[in-house]
Amino acid sequence: MPELPEVEALAAFLTEHLVGREVERVLPLAVSVLKTYDPPLTDLEGRTVLQVRRHGKFLDVVTDGPHLVFHLARAGWLRWRDPLPDTPPRPGKGPLALRVRLAGPGGDGFDLTEAGTQKRLAVYCVRDVAEVPGIARLGPDPLAPEFTLEVFAGLLRDERRQLKGVLRDQSVIAGIGNAYSDEILHAARMSPFKLAASLTEEETAALYTALGATLRDALERSRGTAAGELKAEKKSGLRVHGRTGQPCPVCGDTIREVSYRDSSLQYCPTCQTGGKPLADRRLSRLLK
Hints:
Pfam families: Fapy_DNA_glyco, H2TH, zf-FPG_IleRS. There is one protein chain. By secondary structure, the chain is an alpha+beta fold. It folds into 2 domains: about 130 residues, N-terminal domain of MutM-like DNA repair proteins (Alpha-Beta Barrel); about 140 residues, Orthogonal Bundle (Helicase, Ruva Protein, domain 3). The protein is built from 9 helices and 10 strands.
């Protein structure tokens, strides 16, 4: 799933390729993808792109008419095509969910695709981004100047949930998902199961520093990377997430995993939990 650094890089990529261009055609190809009906997607056709913005993990293509907003979810991706195929795509065939063709002789544009059977990619055509429920609920952006240590401490102060869940909650902090929450907690040397409200001032400051450093480092690695290469760039920079069974790059201990129904987390026992393995909920159920 693309998270804040990759979505920010996609926003920069699209800014370079879209701003000042006219939208010729917007073609939805998956029944599940479009979440709004007023204004219709056809209202985007003939409009000029003014800017591309990021809101958490949402991308916002701002035109001189409606906004085209999309969330790539777990298995969605953006593929730039130069040129786009001349043959019209067939709805419901393959992973293609939406196609945007730009006006001009180049015939270029982009496709939104989604792999797998769980169709969560979401596209909105709205007059105001506040009409998108997911954006309206977003917490503060962790890379914004106003996201200070004091603001962060205030968000955690009354949280009785585990740190892993708090960091992933988009209504608390916008843009952090499963992968970077693992990376942040590893950098901060904290257990994902630690309760947020239990942190001392020193621990809160350490987590705040790790959060900012991890995201900025990932953003710097992603900067200037073409859209098609961002997934590989993200994976290459991860130190614990997705690396179950491999040695921790800090201490050499074996990276372990806790599995859930539709996701998993990775951590280093030596760096984060005092050498103690965390209970794997899925394995515990199997043993009962």
